[in-house]
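Notes from hallway chat w/ T.B., transcribed later so I don't forget. T.B. wanted the structure written out for a chain they're using in a teaching module, and asked if we could keep both sequence and structure tokens in one place. Agreed to drop them here.
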Amino acid sequence: MKFFATVLPSFTVVLALALHVQAHASPVPMLGIKGTPQRNQVQRPSTSSPCGNVNIANTIDSSESVPLESDGTTLRLNITNYNAGGDGSRKVSVLVDPTGTGKDFVAANVTKNGDPAPKNNGADIVTIELPAGTKCTGGGKGNLCLLSVKSSAGFGGCTLASQLASSSSSTGSSCKSKGKKAKRSGDRRAVGTRAALAARGESLHQNPVF
């Protein structure tokens, strides 16, 4: 009886951890991965490692990117889950780093999100709006934005958005027409938000488990 009393709780913990490890979702494509990611390639983005254990500098120029719409700020991204239920949530929050370095993330707006508790494995196409005036400058061609994508269950990874030169130029011109004063005000708000969150040890992701 003592044997079962000792082994059974341990087995229950191991089983729970095993099931949790299999509960994944990720953006497709994903930084550092060719083709569709496998379940064991899904990352757990964190404040210190927004792309998990993927080396950004070594993979940014060899990874597939998703083109932004003609407005230069709208992105439609595939979110695929590898386990059903809440742990396989396809509902995501997104950060964007226009420099592609992984050091200058700000929040992006998800205007159409995925299923937070899918009944089966599958995919949703989510719609993401980058901040107005975003100019992607990352990668060797200087046209990539880096996105950190995290599901409400804490899984995800990074992906790349590519921006046409004409899109970034037209977007920039549109923003300039609104006046430099508005831009400076927006910059101060963005910096203030990042500073305040950093001071509280919080993440820009809207996800409480980040």
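Follow-up for T.B.: The helical segments are 2-21, 56-59, 165-176, 180-200. Might be a good example for the class.
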